[in-house]
Amino acid sequence: MLKPDLHTHTNFSDGALSPKDLVHRAVHNGVTHLAITDHDTTDAYRDFPELTVPGLTLVPGVELSARWMKIGIHIVGLNIHPDNAELRAGIALQQNTREERAQQIATRLRKLGLPDLLSEVRELAGDSTIGRPHFAQCLVKHGHSKDMRAAFKKYLGNGKAGDVMHLWPAQTEVIEWITAAGGIAVLAHPARYKLTATKLRELVRDFCDAGGGAIEVVSGSQTTETTNKLAVLANEHDLFASCGSDFHHPDNRWADLGKFAPLPADVTPVWEQWITTA
Ligand code: AMP
Ligand code: MN
Ligand code: MN
Ligand code: MN
Question: pTM for the whole thing?
Answer without folding.
Answer: 0.97
